[in-house]
Amino acid sequence: MAGSAMRRVSLRNLAAHKVRLVLTVLSVVLGTSFVAGSIIFTATISSAFSTIFDGVALGVDTRVSPKETQANGIPNSVLDTLNADRQKLGIAKLVPRYSAPVTIATADGTALQTGGAPSIGTAFLPSSESLSPTDSKLEPGGRAPQGTGEIALNQSAATKAGLSVGSTTKLVVSRGSAAPITVKVVGILDLPQDTGGYVNVQMQQSVARDLFSDGSPAYVEASAVQGVSSEQLTQRIESVVGSDYSVQTGAQVRQQEKDQVNKFLDVFNYILLGFAAIGLVVGTFIIYNTFSMIIAQRVRELALLRAIGASRSQITRSVLLEAFVVGVFGGVVGLGIGIGLAALLRAITSSNSGLPSASLAITPSAVIACMAVGIVVTMVSAYAPARRAAQVSPVEAMRESQTDGATSLRRRTLIGALLAVIGVVLIGVGTTGQGASWAATVGVGAFVMILAVVFAAPALSRPAVGLLGRVLGRPFGKIGVLARTNAVRNPRRTAATAFALTLGLILVAVVGTFGSSLKGSIDDTIDKNLSADLVLTTSDQGSLPTSVVAAATNSPDVATAVSFRIVAAKVGTDAVTGISPAGDLEKVTPYEMRSGSATIPADGMIVSQKTSDAKGWKLGDTVTFTGYDGTVVPVRVTGVFADNQVLDPWQMGSAAYEKLVPASYRSDRLILVTAKDGVSVDKLRTDLTAATKDYLTVQVEDRAEFAGQASSQIDQMLAVLYAMLGLALVIAVLGIINTLALSVIERKREIGMLRAIGMARAQVRRTIYIESVLIAIFGAVLGVILGSGFGVAVVRTFKDLGITRAVLPYSLIGITLVAAAVVGVVAALWPAVRAARTNPLEAISDV
What we know:
Layout: H1 2-16, H2 18-53, E1 62-66, H3 76-84, H4 86-89, E2 91-97, E3 99-104, E4 119-124, E5 150-154, H5 155-161, E6 168-173, E7 181-189, E8 199-204, H6 205-212, E9 219-224, H7 230-241, E10 245-249, H8 250-297, H9 299-307, H10 312-352, H11 364-391, H12 394-397, H13 406-430, H14 436-473, H15 478-489, H16 491-529, E11 534-538, H17 547-553, E12 558-571, E13 574-582, E14 593-596, E15 604-608, H18 609-615, E16 622-626, E17 632-641, E18 650-652, H19 654-660, E19 668-675, H20 681-691, E20 698-701, H21 703-746, H22 748-756, H23 761-796, H24 810-836, H25 840-845
Parallel strand pairs: 4-8, 5-7, 15-17
Antiparallel strand pairs: 1-9, 1-10, 2-9, 3-4, 3-6, 5-8, 6-7, 11-19, 11-20, 12-13, 12-19, 14-17, 15-18, 16-17
Region (Disordered): 123-149
Main location: membrane
InterPro entries: ABC3_permease_C, MacB_PCD, Macrolide_Exporter_MacB
């Protein structure tokens, strides 16, 4: 009976204080909405890809592909063997597949942007030769491509590019030595995977074989004769080709494609769940702060319940019941907002990226996770205030006011100081070394320091906010003094409110410091290690076909053009990647030799000092490289150069490179160019732009622009993390609104007294504004100082990645502090208006 009565009291209390209920529910919503949004969004994209891959390899019973993704396809000898044994193996059809990355021009002559989706060239197969009826299905009005100058193009790409049957355009193969070719669209393809930014250019099979490969297919697909299952055919073919190749059923191929995409989508999920984690952690403090204030306001009410027979456990359970109800409401609202966030993300990614679109997938896991997180976080946050309220004796609770216990505050401060010492020691130890393990030590130290702030911030807030109040409140006279007094009156509340900004801005300052340091180091590296006048790169972050350097060299204003060719191979079981320069390397980038000769022999290599130390490749050693097609090439180390970020990790001679990398797989990372004497850089740029125009994605940049491009890539990677600043501000606004609104309710009689003795409404509003600004700036300053320190410490552990110096993001810091003051005012608008409308007589008579 008693338990039932307490439940009724709790529910009626919630119903009687609707504003308080709404404020508390809102503090739960942000974290739960991001949890729901992240799960729904990734489930939606995963569902879209699954639908696409359900149409991949249809009609295929067996696929034979290289075990290594970078291998040069399947040797024709394997294809010949399978053809010879078709009847014995039970093969109905055997289809070699040829493909390569390509770029196609739009109707206005610019490169068709895919947003990161694949853009590939493949062979067109008539239905009589194809394994799948949808493999090369043409829209009405088109026909199969014939000869080098004709293509079929998938529907979505044709629409996006403004091309149709009869259109003429440019086609560039992104690897190999083929020059750009002019092609005519003769057919539009209806493909099951035609979604997002996907581009598929199909050409006659013999043309595709010559243009997209060195004559060997990328993989081979087979269908079984009647009476032979996919598994049987796969086993038979595997027994013929051996263990050197991957032999899979069509179903296994589809599942592998889905698994790879889901791994890729995990990145999105981690990013979105990172937002959710911030919302949840900061939301936990807001909920804790909210319930602490609610309990403080209801302490006399709870004391009366204790006086009439309610036990401590019943008081605790009644508060937890309220928290449960709030968690349920917050979870439901968060789920609704999460669905909206997922829909917004879907709209953004569908229009600006290569991701496919699909209807929203609202999975049971999203609903369960959202509700569980909302309920658990709220009840955990409310437990400590509930337990503390239950331990207050009825007589003590009947007092007019409650204050923070001095003993409890001293204990918290001592714990915080101890944690701060431990955190500083860990960070100091971490900065003495370089690498991931040392960075992890810094991370642990930073986490301990954040815990130290949680414990010690209440004690720190009194002098810090008091000092800020004296400075910022001085122009407002007595109003400023009153605002300062209100801000420092309850240090726990002030610290918990400010922590919303502190935590978010710690993260932003760390990211900002790391990004600024990385960009500053790139500028230093290019200034120090690059002497070329211009750099040729691609606008899509891909590779350049090897024919680009020939086009550049033919320009009459070019003195030197050195292409940096990508070498991908294995040494033992380790995959390695390096560069093979084509041209006089010393004329475009200065480098200092530690030992050996600076000249790279055709069958030799030079390595950086760091690589020599790490891998043990010493002067005179022979390193055995194995190409991904099995070619073994011994290469002698003829020199060791001082660490150089442009040339790191090693540079290989041309003869060794050509043995390792088949012609159709060769590509350039970039090309460095110098002008002839008397030729201006602007003149050289104009000539090179004209010479490489047909390659569609080639960019001609000077050194500053090249550094800027690298910096812009960093900015793109950091953009999502910087968005957390917006989330931190939103959470901070919510937290400060909560605190101030509840504080206004708590101080209703006090505000009524001030109004009764003559304080104007504008003065009441101004008091709340100043109090809010003081709390916001305190949280922001604390977050920026800690975050900048953590950022510098992290940067020092990554010097081996080429981050040469720590650079603080001063502009970001300045904007942050100004934004904190604005946040303080914005957050105080509604509570200030509410306080100003307090009726003096009603407030004074309120009991």
